[in-house]
Specification:
This protein is α/β, with parallel strands linked by helices. The structure holds adenosine-5'-diphosphate (ADP) and magnesium ion.
Length: 530
């Protein structure tokens, strides 16, 4: 895009302008396509080098007439589709106006122009006319004859050079703008290509939050640093750990996962560090711990916030010294593992409550990757839907199905307490229900045990609008219970504590709202819930 207000940014334009001023005392200026003087937009008025023009520009009517002369000259260029410099000849004072159009790709972008001068042969011939005009404008000029003598004049030859210079200047401007346009197009293309990188490994997301997250992952993927991934259930913490491993230098070595909340202390210790034969009843032979298995690779410690204090000490030792002791063993074993830990709990607060060791927290939290919940990045929903639909299509060897727009609209409204995992399950459910139908209709949202359709978020708004308090309270209560059930993986005891009600009350309400069935059905469908 050629911007007349930027012409002077070009060094060559400034230089030519300087020369013209020095040689002929003529001021080169710029006008936009409407003929408006660019300097005036900026609040700058530079009059031509003569007492007459100064006086004319100095009064309001004169300023208006001057501008109209320029405007007419520039518009005439556009109307006549001129491509060269043209001497428009007369301004309101009877002086010359010269203008050269800036045309690129058949488009008129404005003009460079100069005024307030005369050709030497016109200089004598116009004396009477110009002075008359000045007088009729009521200009107060002390010595009109002398002022007239001071008007810059150009010989016919110089006038030719002047035109050439103007045309050269315009060529420079057009050429420069072309280069800029090309560069800008290239930059736009590059940023599209980069922006098109909505993926890191198998993690998709185009939201700013996810793009930032990808940038962090890019930086840490090749390092050996311990990473702590935090975020709600189903936000993709494990996926991130996997992506870091399989895109990093350890990708050919094992990736080992252990969920720290799944086992009691004794079992967890034996899982992680192994045991020697006879160290406890049932230890009939030596068992290799997962830390040994993970040697050279990556160990993903899921739900690390659920680790007991005793186990925290043992983990700390691995992190600090790279050694551990198998259960019943006496010789510390050395390992080289990269640790990626994850938790949906706020470790920092747990540290404050002394539920989590501060030293371990700092060891784990070398790099913190926080995964935002899906509701905080709803703009990722369409991309994720497309991704999961494509996934299913690939598995089934069929064309990818499409979601009815109403479904997407509903998805945007929904709070997704189970995050991406819940969205993934929902898409799977819809795809199955759709059977051979290519378009997944909104009717399918209602069938089966989906929370998405049940959730009364919209109702809540409606009740709020109507001012119906008890209906709104009911809707909110139901929504909180439903979302809480998904978030706690239907752990009613935990949810009751979270909501500050007794377990009995919670169960009663679940029955009342008829959400029990949905919960159980989704739970069985979820598989990996813990
Ligand atoms: N950004 C994402 N892009 C694609 N799939 C995702 C994304 N985030 C999560 N998923 C999928 O959602 C499910 C839950 O992810 P997971 O990593 O197990 O979550 P978390 O460990 O935080 O509970 C997995 O099937 C995972 O592949
Ligand atoms: Mg997980």
């Amino acid at each position: 895009m050629i911007d007349p207000s930027r012409f002077e940014d070009l060094l060559i334009v400034r230089k030519i302008k300087e020369k013209i001023r020095k040689w002929w005392r003529i001021e080169l200026s710029f006008a936009d396509p409407t003929g408006f003087v660019v300097d005036h937009k900026k609040g700058v008025v530079i009059p031509p080098h003569s007492k007459l023009c100064e006086a004319s520009l100095g009064c309001r009517e004169g300023f208006g007439r001057c501008n109209r002369s320029i405007e007419k000259a520039v518009r005439d260029l556009a109307d006549r589709k001129e491509t060269k410099a043209v001497l428009v000849d007369q301004c309101h004072m009877g002086l010359h106006v010269i203008a050269c159009p800036v045309v690129a790709d058949d488009k008129f972008h404005g003009a460079i122009f100069a005024c307030g001068f005369l050709g030497s042969e016109a200089k004598e011939a116009r004396r009477g006319l110009v002075l008359e005009n000045a007088a009729s404008e009521g200009l107060q000029i002390a010595q009109p004859e002398e002022a007239y003598g001071g008007i810059p004049s150009l010989s016919a030859q110089d006038m030719g050079y002047f035109k050439d210079l103007l045309e050269t200047t315009v060529e420079e401007i057009v050429e420069f703008s072309r280069t800029i346009d090309q560069k800008e197009a290239r930059i736009a293309q590059l940023s599209r290509e980069l922006g098109g990188r909505y993926q890191f490994g198998n993690i998709v997301g185009k939201s700013a939050a996810m793009q930032r997250l990808f940038a962090v992952l890019e930086k840490v993927v090749d390092s050996e640093s311990t990473v702590l991934v935090t975020g709600e259930n189903g936000t993709g913490k494990e996926l991130i750990a996997r992506a870091l491993h399989y895109n990093g230098p350890r990708k050919d070595k094992p990736f080992v996962v252990q969920n720290c909340s799944a086992l009691n202390d004794n079992l967890l210790e034996s899982e992680l560090f192994g045991h020697v034969k006879g160290s406890f009843t049932g230890a009939t032979r030596d068992k290799q711990g997962l830390f040994r298995v993970a040697h050279g690779g990556t160990f993903f410690l899921d739900e690390v916030g659920d680790m007991s204090p005793a186990m925290q000490v043992k983990l700390l030792r691995v992190l600090q010294e790279g050694t551990f002791l198998p259960v019943g063993g006496t010789k510390p074993e050395e390992v080289d593992v990269r640790i990626i830990a994850a938790t949906n709990r706020t470790l920092k607060e747990m540290v404050q409550r002394r539920e989590f060791r501060e030293d371990l927290y700092y060891r784990l939290n070398v790099i913190n990757v926080e995964v935002p919940p899906l509701r905080a990045r709803a703009e990722d929903i369409p991309l994720l839907c497309e991704y999961f639909l494509g996934h299913h299509a690939e598995k089934a060897g069929k064309a990818s199905k499409q979601l009815a727009p109403e479904i997407l609209a509903r998805f945007f409204e929904y709070g997704w307490p189970g995050n991406i995992r819940e969205l993934e399950n929902e898409i799977e459910r819809l795809v199955v229900l759709a059977g051979d139908r290519q378009l997944v209709g909104v009717d399918l949202l209602q069938s089966g045990a989906s929370h998405v359709a049940q959730l009364p978020a919209r109702d809540l708004e409606r009740y709020k609008e109507k001012g119906d308090l008890s209906a709104a309270v009911t809707a909110l209560e139901r929504e909180m219970i439903q979302q809480g059930l998904v978030a706690t993986h239907w752990n009613k005891t935990r949810l009751a504590v979270q909501l500050g009600v007794s377990r009995t009350t919670l169960i009663k309400k679940i029955k009342e709202y008829g959400i029990e069935d949905a919960a159980t059905a989704a739970e069985t469908g979820e598989g990996g819930a813990h």
